[in-house]
Amino acid sequence: MTVRVRFAPSPTGFMHLGNARTALFNWLFARHHGGEFVLRIEDTDRTRHTEAAVQVIYDTLKWMGLDWDGPVLRQSERIDIYHQVAEKLIAEGKAYRCVCTKEELEAKKAAMKDTAHHACYDGTCRDKNLGPDCGPHVVRFRMPKEGVSMFDDMVQGHIEKNYADLDDFIMVRTDGMPTYQFAVVVDDLALKITHVIRGCDHIDNTHDQIALYKALGAEPPKFGHAPRILGLSKRKGSPSVEYYREAFGLLPQGLNNYIARLGWSHGDDEIFTMDELVKAFDITGVNQANGNFDEDKLKWVNEQQIHITSADVLADHVIPIFASRGVNVEKGEFLNKLLEMMRERAHNLNEIVDQSMFVFKAPESYDEKSVKKNFNADTENLLNEFADKLEASSTWDNDSIDKAIKDVIEPRELKLGKLAQPIRIALVGIAQSPGIHETIWFVGKDECIRRLRAAAKYAASIQAQA
RNA sequence: GUCCUCGUCGUCUAGAGGCCCAGGACAGAGGCCUUUCACGCCUCCGACGCGAGUUCGAAUCUCGCCGAGGACACCA
Fold first, then answer.
1. What is the pLDDT of residues A80-113, one digit of tens each?
2. Calpha distance A380→A382 (Å, rounded)
3. What is the mean pLDDT of residues A293-305?
4. Short-list A314, A313, A286, CA closest to A22
5. Which of A203, A215, A246, A391 is the most buried (most CB within 10 A)?
6. Same fold: A4-73+229-306 with A362-465
7. pLDDT tens-place string over residues A54-78
8. CATH for the stretch A4-73+229-306
9. A37 near A5, Cβ under 8 Å?
10. Distance in angstroms, CA of A235 to C1' of B9?
């Protein structure tokens, strides 16, 4: 049997992190087992969905690198099918029409508060055998009254619930639209879904759905309910993929890796490429207990992924961020060289860009603390002399830069730091940067000399003031 | 309120009766490396929710308690 799983989000306008993980788990499960991963859009709630919201789903999955198989199923396009199935179940006595209004039901519920089993529909219309001309009505599922509903969850193990605690849930609403509970089963059946992997907030729904499968004479798929991700604070903005991607400078694999390890594990392994995840992932490794989202660990995992990602791939992710900072950079050898250096030290993509800015832009000001600590009466001469040495050199590589540095510090018997720090301030604006040779090299000879002279002038001006 | 599920360091987790006076990772503390800032490396801190059983032996099995999350919508 070929494994077929699905991801079935409703278009809410953003991809919640929990949803993203459900998508990832399903995708990994499919790829691991050589099966198929299909996408279904649950847009039966007319009032809420927009096309832009559907596009967010596509974009997010693509960014995460989760490709889906076959056409995308839209529930809104399958209304007739749901009606056919509902009619069939009514005809077989497995479902029935109900004319109880929402208001009536709410009143009954309120009256039954504090009594046992008040949550269940009282069955007013269960045996009325109402026909299609009974006026505005819903269609309810006729749930068995006795016995125990049970299934073996791939993650949570054996789960059971008394039918007495299950409701005659609504399949078709008054407006003719199917409810989630109903559409899911009809669609999963149509798509020949073999395994349903979703959040454990669906555990209780599963009993309803299995009852439906049975009423339809069909074999239910296997279910696996993954734990929830707790601690996604809404105060920090919408806990969506988009938000974390931008705020944390995330690489897709940084997110994927972190999210996969939250609620799933493979021994002591922490860092996975996508191929490694596909190889290692299986539903048996998924945890039962809910997990807490931890920003620090996400940051760390993302950082580790940046360390092992090729400069070429990094370039694709970093170029748009440069653009958003008003700097146009092009793919190529120079950028790759820069990224190879930056990826070793940066914590995230935003930092790579921010800390690379000096390569493309001269400092607009000098960091006060850095200047205070590293500039003195000698700085003007030191910087100018170093600029002279660079100017005199005919080549531009590590050796020539190194020679220029030594030619300045050796006669004066200075330690490297005494020259390197003022140079950093001159080139970057602050006394923090990559190795001094690289910093100089990336700025380029002419620009370097220009910045050194400008900083020398500045050093002179503050000396004059003092 | 009713029902369902879960419970190992602050956090993510390893652990499927002896390998565990519990291992790894993040965070925290300290140190090393070093021309700066980072990276990296090393050390330390730190948990089996509680109580009964079962067993020669329990983090691992059973029960109770407590705690956490979820479902109870003509939302998905």
1. 999 999 999 999 999 999 999 988 888 888 777 6
2. 5
3. 97
4. A286
5. A215
6. no
7. 999 999 999 999 999 999 999 999 9
8. 3.40.50.620
9. yes
10. 28
**Residue in the block written with tokens 């539903």:** A283
Q: Give the tokens for residue A300.
A: 């760390």
Say yes or no: domain A78-226 is CATH 3.40.50.720.
Answer: no
Distance A460 CA to B30 C1' (A): 42
Q: What is the spatial order of strands in the sheet that A73-74 belongs to?
A: A4-7, A36-41, A73-74
Tokens representing A389 are 């040495």
**What residues of A are labeled active site?**
234
Residue ranges of domains in chain A: 4-73+229-306, 78-226, 362-465
Handedness of CA A325, A327, A331, A335 (dihedral sign): negative
Contacts of A171 (CB under 8 A, 6+ apart): A82, A86, A89, A95, A138, A139, A140, A141, A178, A179, A181, A182
Cβ–Cβ under 8 Å, residues A25 and A226? yes
Nucleotides of B under 7 A from a protein CB: 1-8, 10-15, 23-27, 35-40, 68-76
3-state DSSP: chain A helix, strand, coil percent, rounded to 5?
50, 10, 35
A362-465 is classed in which CATH architecture?
A: Orthogonal Bundle (1.10)
The strand ranges marked E within A220-343 are 222-226, 229-230, 291-292
User: Which residue, counting CA atoms, is nearest to the C1' of nucleotide B38?
Assistant: A345
Contacts of A108 (CB under 8 A, 6+ apart): A122
